[in-house]
Amino acid sequence: MFSCPRRWGAGSGYERVPAGPEAQKCNPEKNASFFSRMTYSWFSRVIVLGYKKPLEREDLCELHESDSSYIVCPIFEKQWRKEVLRTQERQEVKASFSKETHARKPSLVYALWNTFKFVLIQVALFKVFADILAFTSPLIMKQMIVFCEHHPDFGWSGYGYALALFVVVFLQTLILQQYQRFNMLTSAKIKTAVIGLLYKKALLLSNVSRKKFSTGEITNLMSADAQQLMDLTANLSLLWSAPFQILMAISLLWQELGPAVLAGVAVLVFVIPVNALVATRVKKLKKSQTKNKDKQIKLLNEILHGIKILKLYAWESSYQKKIIKIREQELEVQKSAGYLAVFSMLTLTCIPFLVSLATFGIYFLLDEGNILTATKVFTSMSLFNILRLPLFDLPMVISAVVQTRVSLDRLEDFLNTEELHPQNIETNYIGDHAIGFTNASFSWDKTGVPVLKNLNIKIPEGALVAVVGPVGSGKSSVLSAILGEMEKLTGVVQRKGSVAYVAQQAWIQNCILQENILFGSIMQKQFYERVLEACALLPDLEQLPNGDQTEIGERGVNISGGQKHRVSLARAVYSGADIYLLDDPFAAVDVHVGKQLFEKVIGSSGILKNKTRILVTHNLTLLPEMDLIVVMESGRVAHMGTYHELLSKTRNLTNLLQAFSEQEKAHALKRVSVINSRTILKDQIVEQNDRPSLNQGKQFSMKKEKIPVGGVKFSIILKYLQAFGWLWVWLSVAAYLGQNLVGVAQNLWLSAWVKEAKHMNEFTEWKQIRSNKLNIYGLLGLMQGFFVCSGAYILTRGSLAASRTLHTQLLDNVLHLPLRFFEINPIGQIINRFAKDMFIIDIRFHYYLRNWVNCTLDVIGTVLVIGGALPLFILGVIPLMFLYLTIQITQSLNFWVRKACEIETNAVSIERVCEYENMDKEAPWIMSKRPPSQWPEKGIVEFINYQARYRDDLGLALRDITFQTHGEEKIGIVGRTGAGKSTLSNCLFRIVERSGGKIIIDGIDISTIGLHDLRGRLNIIPQDPVLFSGTLQMNLDPLDKYSDRELWEVLELCHLKDFVQSLPKKLLHEISEGGENLSVGQRQLVCLARALLRKTKILILDEATASIDFETDTLVQTTIRKEFSDCTILTIAHRLHSIIDSDRVLVLDSGRITEFETPQNLICQKGLFFEMLTEAGITQDSVTK
């Protein structure tokens, strides 16, 4: 089952979201018997099914209710809230006694303990029983050796010992598996709970917190840091189990070797402070590592969301260098951590040897009569072998604790960061108005400059209110203040009822269209269809492949900008809220569609006629329909009143109307023309039928993440080894082979030593050879330490090389993928490759590979040693292996299988990273044929029988396009939604490649040159204004090619100079992620300034001024005509007045050119262009002017 937080303000609980029918299978564990639970036979059906075919979601049963996120998450959140309150109470108590108190953060560990303590105790009990049974085996083995020495004829006692040993190991295996199962399940539940809390926190962040934590950093918290916490939980029992096993081993060794064991204890005590120093250094490196990882993921997230801009401007290589620079810093830290790991491996390997050497040495020195017998040697060595694992694990888990402490600090910092304050707005207000501001001032953070100042607004219930003003005047900020997303500095804000919000940039989910509109609400068929009709979506549904069941891609990539806004509007309408906040929803739709939306949805006869509606708009022709108009200027209410009041009492509205032509002004002075709805619907259907359908153009299905089936191919492991470097591969194999050979030699040497001691007749003879034997045993130990140290160093160097190579290849492959790939693949999947999968490759995979190689060699060595002593044993190995795979009797083989499974599981990350290698790429960035340095000089663009389609299996999006521009000519490109306007501009940049024909620019076929040579010589102001986090200067000039003087000049031309000069840091003003601390209009002007800096001979304007007011639009158009007067300009626009003065207008319909003439001639022809002008209310007189 899945779960999701309820909508903000609806409570702190979670709702159970029912999955499909495939998840309704009852969990067989609920009714399983004790034997079935202990042997996992209840899971046999899934194992058998997985053997027959790859498992799919519907093959699995539902989770046990106690394991489901909708149960786990709210329980943990409740404990976290309690911890927060307890911490606040403690701070208040301390503050009452002392003025200076150190602020203590609420502890995530305490909240986790209070949530999962009973399960953790259960896990601990399983581990205790398993450890006790582990030490029972050497005791039984000791009795078996004593029995063999004194009773060579055997007897029933011998069979009894053998049976006892089998039973103990069998029970240990069963209990150990239960421990492993509950341990991993608890770890997963902890990760689930933490991620659920992180997700809910992310929805409540204040503006200050959003600046502090980018989307990439939050993603990293949910992936890497939550995973780190899960990994530690899985090994948490070792913190007490390892010391327990060490104490048990030492106490049993005391019985065998007496006080000599204290020498081994002394060695252990000596190593503890060494490990503490290493752990301290590892903690510092972990902090540096996470900072670098955060920076990389943050930049990657912005690159992938702005990938179209990077491709259009040919910036991929520049940003690739930035990523690689951060990556190199990350690898430097990783290298230092690797060298510390080399030292740790040396100490870890030498500790068991040093303990045994010191113990045996002191054992001989304490009493010259001490002789090693078979009983003492093999019992002691068995205990030393048991001691070896906790000695190996304890420092590792301590290191993991240190690293997880860093992750916990990061998680706690995020969870304790500032949230939106509910007290910013009174939502329980009961009065005669829906929204009220009284002397209210707001800023984006508590210490920031006020953005809205001294607002006094009263909005009656059911009123239709327009908020107008120039770019940056605070229109959208007023809506944010009503939502409670701004910091209230002074005054009172009141709001009555629920709120629905339609953002200026439409927010679309990656799900079917119906789910986008319902947004979790219950389906009410009649009202749903009414909403679709009102929002002009019915004709769209007829054209979509599956109607309202059609899947919409991430960020709505497979629907037009106008369709996105209409879907977003429909979602708000369907919610049935009391108050509707509408941030310029008509900017991206055609004029006649906007009129229908106003009439059917927002206006006095619309579906929302009885609701409170606040509309931010630049369309001043709508003002006569308003009950109240609020005119914003510099964050203040300049004027407020009805349309006629403002028109009669102030000149402000008149000044705004002067941005229109005389015809538009006259049109605004009368009531908005109400176009017959049937006519509109008819026009809309014609528009939909004329344009290429989604089957012909951008038919879409969001690509599901590829899930590998079957075993991991050896070719994947081979790719890793190639990246590792074959020299390092063979050296590491040699080192680990040498390490295990020396380990075998140690055991053989002890065996031979005991055998010689047994045949010694005189004590003096034994005393003479004792020192030599001990010295050789010590030398073998030192050799083993050398091999271990060498192997760890080689592994570090090789793994660094593999990490660097695979990351570089991954980044290069991703940046060379066509734009279409990013439209059909969720950005989160790609980010996961760089975050989680690279984390596994960097940190885990080589560790698992090393353990598996070591364990494999250890098992082989053991088999060979026993086989050499007892050749008949080899005949029993095969059935023993089969028996083990059945009941998992041998701990060493158990460990070997686990590591083999871990290798295969984690090798999937290598497969995912290499997945993009064989995908279709864009053309090369640079080719052997390169254009002249001054190309293009004239700006002549020629399309010859050009055709294009989005995929080979789709119809043509452009058909037989043939036209030619003159140098420095201004071309307007118009057409209804989906006619192919933006596709035409994409083809110029080879975002969409040709299916036939060619494009020639100044005599060069653009298909014969590299993409960067092409895109770097063209200029575009795109429809969606994309900014990156960083300074304003960096956003204007990411390649650092221009002087400050040039930057200020373009800012002045874009009418942004005054705004930037008012900022405290001016050009160094920090832009937040996605440019969220600028209005959409300001972002568009920054993009214009960027284009002015990058002055080339050909400029494409792709609906570039849709998000700015008419007055600023007029100024911008004037600037463009002046500054690009010697350039060829291709303008795509919804606002037809912006292309009226073009030299020629190109009219597209259904992917074909239907008209191409001067505006005056096209009007005389009374074709499609004339119809569009008529719908926009533009007359022939205004065109001739």
Automatic annotation (TrEMBL):
A Gene Ontology term for the protein's cellular component: vacuolar membrane
Species name: Mustela putorius furo (European domestic ferret)
Ranges where the ABC transporter domain occurs: 435-659, 941-1175
Family: Belongs to the ABC transporter superfamily. ABCC family. Conjugate transporter (TC 3.A.1.208) subfamily.
Keyword match Phosphoprotein: no
Keywords annotated in UniProt: ATP-binding, Membrane, Nucleotide-binding, Repeat, Transmembrane, Transmembrane helix, Transport, Vacuole
Main localisation: membrane
Annotated transmembrane regions: 108-136, 156-176, 232-254, 260-279, 337-366, 734-754, 774-795, 859-885
Protein name (Swiss-Prot/TrEMBL): Multidrug resistance-associated protein 1-like isoform X5
Protein localization: Vacuole membrane
InterPro entries recorded: AAA+_ATPase (IPR003593), ABC1_TM_dom (IPR011527), ABC1_TM_sf (IPR036640), ABC_transporter-like_ATP-bd (IPR003439), ABC_transporter-like_CS (IPR017871), ABC_transporter_C-like (IPR050173), P-loop_NTPase (IPR027417)
Signal sequence region: none
Domain ABC transmembrane type-1: 121-403, 730-889
Membrane topology term: Multi-pass membrane protein
PROSITE patterns, sorted: ABC_TM1F, ABC_TRANSPORTER_1, ABC_TRANSPORTER_2
GO MF annotation: an example: ATP hydrolysis activity
Keyword Glycoprotein (UniProt): no
